[in-house]
Write a structure and sequence with these properties.
Strand 4 (about 100-105), helix 4 and strand 5 (about 125-130) form a beta-alpha-beta unit. This protein is α/β, with parallel strands linked by helices. The protein has helices at about 25-35, 50-60, 80-95, 110-120, 135-140, 180-195, 195-205, 205-210, 215-235, 250-260, 265-285, 290-300, 315-320, 350-360; strands at about 15-20, 40-45, 65-70, 100-105, 125-130, 145-150, 155-160, 165-170, 330-340, 340-350. The N and C termini lie far apart (about 65 Å). Helices cover about 45% and strands about 20% of the residues.
């Protein structure tokens, strides 16, 4: 038997993040000067496509770039392997080859699906993330997580595939409905809860302007937010340690999202999940009631739900939690707050504790 060692140098991904207003022309000009591909597949959904895809494709074509739209039905229900296959088949039918780059234009679902397409198409092509929702700007467009849902749980199939660039255009938020706009703010203040308290101070000081979608204020807010996300992801690209803190609120949140059959959207579920995690931490004696109350107050001020859905049975929530990808050796794990701006991750929580917390006074 012969044996040899192959040494592979894996370098951290580096990419630019551009935050501004009316960025499509800027994006096209940059791709013209530094092309990523010979053809660009603009992947979007049936909600965002009619609003922004034509303007993006026009900007690209005006810069002499070849671009085509690929549209799939909007909504979490279409974040599936079947949707990914449909998009890949369409790209193959239209002759897109290895000299392709994907432009993901839309919210978190689009970013996840399009990013996953890019991760595997022709064994991997570049992807540019162009988030159009507060949720995608605050969280999913940064960090390289891509994937789809299955009947067994959310985001169970996917890959890490970092974008080569991210363009956050505040103009696209003007067409986002009020519910989704506010829901995305949950992921944003999450970064304040887990790491940077200045985000919370900024949100509370500029709450009215944020809710009015003031572009200048939003640019500053997303800059603060992205600094936190970048700091965490750069230290733990593959979510083997520190990056798990970004899952604050997600263990309960994902269970509600799956169990409510989309009656609650992702950001709303995360908001409820964070309040629940804080209740668990208080129950354990590792978090003060004052800090848990401030989190609840901030979320309520942003118009987000904070209470467990009355229609969702506790046993059903537990069943869905057992299917979460963060379960280790049969134990449900949580990110739990300890004090302002600090959390612990990978904390095993018994089903008894969960049941008791679901009956807690704070919920």
């Amino acid at each position: 038997m012969k044996e040899m060692t192959i040494q592979v140098q894996v370098r951290p991904a580096e990419y630019r993040l551009i935050i501004g207003h009316d960025l499509f022309a800027v994006l096209a000009e940059e791709l013209q000067k530094s092309p990523l591909a010979a053809r660009y597949a603009v992947i979007t959904d049936s909600m965002v496509g009619p609003l922004w895809a034509a303007a993006l494709v026009s900007a690209l074509e005006n810069a002499g770039l070849a671009a085509e739209q690929f549209v799939f039905p909007a909504g979490e229900a279409h974040k599936t392997r079947e949707t990914k296959q449909m998009l890949e088949n369409q790209m193959l039918e239209r002759g897109f080859g290895r000299d392709t780059a994907v432009l993901a234009l839309g919210g978190g679902v689009v970013g996840d699906v399009a990013g996953y397409v890019a991760a595997t198409y022709m064994r991997g092509v570049p992807v540019v993330q162009i988030p159009t929702t507060t949720l995608a700007m605050a969280d999913s467009s940064i960090g390289g997580k891509t994937g789809v849902d299955t009947p067994y749980g959310k985001n169970l199939i996917g890959a890490f595939h970092h974008p080569v660039r991210v363009y956050m255009d505040m103009k696209t938020l003007t067409t986002l409905d009020e519910r989704n706009y506010r829901a995305g703010l949950a992921e944003l203040v999450k970064h304040g809860f887990i790491k940077d308290l200045s985000i919370l101070d900024f949100v509370q000081e500029h709450k009215e302007l944020i809710l009015k979608r003031d572009a200048a204020v939003l640019e500053k807010l997303f800059e603060k937010n992205c600094t936190v996300k970048n700091d965490v992801v750069s230290q733990d690209d593959q979510e083997k340690g520190l990056r798990q803190i970004l899952n604050y609120g997600h263990t309960m949140g994902h269970a509600i999202e799956m169990g409510s059959q989309s009656d609650f959207i992702h950001g709303e579920c995360v908001a409820i999940g964070m309040v629940f995690a804080a209740e668990l931490a208080c129950q354990r004696g590792i978090c003060s009631r004052e800090w848990a109350a401030r989190q609840r107050t901030i979320l309520q001020e942003l118009g987000l739900p904070v209470d467990l859905p009355a229609a969702l049975e506790a046993e059903e929530i537990l069943r869905l939690m057992r299917m979460d990808k963060k379960v280790r050796q049969g134990q449900i794990q949580f990110v739990l707050p300890t004090q302002p701006g600090e959390v612990i991750f990978g904390a095993p929580v018994s089903e008894k504790e969960i049941m008791e917390a679901m009956k807690g006074d704070a919920l």
